[in-house]
């Protein structure tokens, strides 16, 4: 029945230019996030200071959204790790509360 | 003006292997969730105990994210209904708070 | 270090038929949302009173999800602006709490 208990975690959504995906995935590996999901066919306009509001609406491959769920203590290391990227390139990170059904899947020491 | 009132609901995101989509959609129909949205072109790595961290990064069709919004009392039946799937296959369910503009669209007895 | 501070904002997800995307993007421009992201390859079933529950599962291009993050005071104008669309067409708007790393990117007066 323990599968029916929900545990509080943090959901992180990172939106970046696709060419920086490896930077982010390496960071998530480094902080031992247990996994992530990438939504790659997204487009956007004007978000986060994109080159003077350059319209990228028809350039569907230019952005990706990376979705991960982590314990709260991993939020700050991820944000700190993204700082060098965000200093030089467009991108943003969004953090929200989420509950997950299986906490063990998000803890360190598990494959 | 009633359209401008926001009502608290629960947002559910379910990430599973694409081959199990019908299992989930049947479950959502059974609990009378009024609808769902499927994001199908996603990829991921290592999430939720995927086969020893097998890298599926180039296998974009292997996972889907199912997004639905339901009244709070439907969360537990959905979680319980997913249990048999999660016992044998990779996947996770995330629950968060959300407000919707039109509650009637999410209640039973409406098409 | 200011990049490491998280600021509370509102995350808005709007799900509509793809043909109404321009209506929504014009609205977001009008209320000076600083940007948005569009996830376009989604499918759905029965959500929000779709034409008598017409199954659109194989019609992947029919819906889009628009994702934006705004200060709280922009939520009501966006909801009000969508009202005429929702009165005549299917669609829904979901609002949730989110924290962002760089508030300045979401304020007016910035490109």
Tell me what the structure shows.
The structure is a homotrimer of 111-residue chains. Chain A is α+β, with helices and mostly antiparallel strands and 111 residues long. Chain A contains two helices and four strands; from the N terminus they run βαββαβ. Chain A has helices at 21-30, 75-88, and strands at 7-17, 36-45, 63-70, 91-100. A four-stranded antiparallel β-sheet of chain A has the order 2-3-1-4, with helices on one face. In chain A, helix 1 (21-30) packs antiparallel against helix 2 (75-88). The longest helix of chain A is centred in the last third of the chain and has 14 residues, at 75-88. Chain A is globular and about 40 Å long. Chain A starts with 6 loop residues before the first strand and ends in an 11-residue tail after the last strand. Chains in contact: A-B, A-C, B-C. Chain A binds chain B through residues 3-4, 6, 11, 25, 34-41, 67, 69, 96-102, 105, 110-111, and chain B through 15, 39, 41-50, 52-53, 57, 60, 63, 65, 75-76, 79-80, 82-83, 86-87, 92-97. Strand 4 (91-100) of chain A pairs antiparallel with strand 4 of chain B.
Task: Describe the structure in brief.
Helix content of chain A is 22%, strand content 35%.
Shape descriptor of chain A reads globular
Query: How far is the N terminus from the C terminus of chain A?
Result: 22 Å
Quaternary class: homotrimer
Evaluate the radius of gyration of chain A: 15 Å
Structural class of chain A: alpha+beta
Strand order of the largest sheet of chain A: 2-3-1-4
The percent range for strand residues of chain A is 35-45%
Mean pLDDT of chain A: 79
- Largest sheet properties of chain A: 4 strands, antiparallel
